[in-house]
């Protein structure tokens, strides 16, 4: 997250100019958020705080942390601004057998894991490579996904969206 997001935050970025997140101060705010996360030693707490920081600091409305386990994405934590119950229900849904996205040759998120690079999806409802059960459960119109790679190995993925479509 620390290496992929600063590059993504340059230029035209999801969340740019979002209320409470000024453009010139964005990298400084991100550094402060990362500093707050560095002090966390519990892995579960780190995931929960990371998704919240994505929303509160970067300006997304919803963020989800997925662990990469046995070629599946398993929801670990979610933050939906203004709706903690919806976020908790989403995590329960996204962890269920038969609902968890499989990392196969079709799914866009497979490219995030394979190439170890973030991506932006501008129209997930009409993109055949997105996972519709979770897109529809979050009412996502566009989103970003970024790999989490301590030591260069992808162990998780962060996905974040705004309530309105991203216009890049």
Overall description:
It is a single chain. This protein is an alpha+beta fold. It is 36% helix and 19% strand. The protein has six helices and five strands. It has a five-stranded antiparallel beta sheet with strand order 2-1-5-4-3. Helix 2 runs antiparallel to helix 3. The longest helix has 16 residues. The two termini are 21 Å apart.
Oligomer: single chain
- Shape category: globular
- What value does the Rg take, in angstroms? 15 Å
What is the number of helices?
6
Strand order across the biggest sheet?
2-1-5-4-3
Helix-strand pattern = HHHEEHHEHEE
What portion of residues belong to β-strands? 15-25%
Helix content: 25-40%
Regions with pLDDT < 50 over 5+ consecutive residues? 1-22
> In angstroms, what separates the terminal alpha carbons?
21 Å
Q: In this structure, how is the largest beta sheet organized?
A: 5 strands, antiparallel
Count of strand segments = 5
Mean pLDDT: 80
Coarse structural class: alpha+beta
Topology:
Blueprint lengths: L3 H5 L17 H13 L4 H16 L3 E8 L2 E9 L3 H12 L12 H8 L3 E3 L10 H7 L4 E6 L7 E6 L7
Antiparallel strand pairs: 1-2, 1-5, 3-4, 4-5
Helix pairs in contact: 2-3
Give a nutshell description of this structure.
This protein is α+β, with helices and mostly antiparallel strands. It is built from 6 helices and 5 strands.
Please name the defining characteristics of this protein:
5 strands, 6 helices, alpha+beta, disordered N terminus, single chain, 168 residues, 5-stranded antiparallel β-sheet
């Amino acid at each position: 997250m620390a290496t992929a997001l600063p590059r993504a935050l340059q230029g035209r970025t999801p969340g740019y100019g979002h209320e409470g997140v000024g453009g010139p101060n964005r990298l400084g705010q991100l550094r402060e958020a990362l500093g707050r996360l560095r002090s966390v030693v519990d892995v579960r707490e780190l995931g929960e705080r990371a998704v919240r920081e994505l929303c509160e600091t970067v300006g997304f409305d919803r963020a989800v942390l997925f662990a990469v386990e046995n070629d599946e994405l398993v929801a670990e934590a979610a933050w939906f601004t203004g709706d903690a119950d919806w976020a908790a229900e989403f995590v329960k849904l996204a962890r269920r057998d038969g609902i968890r996205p499989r990392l196969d040759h079709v799914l866009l998120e497979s490219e995030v894991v394979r190439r170890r690079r973030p991506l932006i999806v501008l129209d997930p409802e009409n993109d055949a490579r997105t996972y519709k059960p979770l897109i529809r459960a979050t009412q996502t119109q566009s989103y970003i996904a970024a790999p989490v790679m301590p030591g260069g190995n992808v162990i998780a993925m962060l996905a974040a969206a705004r309530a309105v479509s991203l216009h890049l």
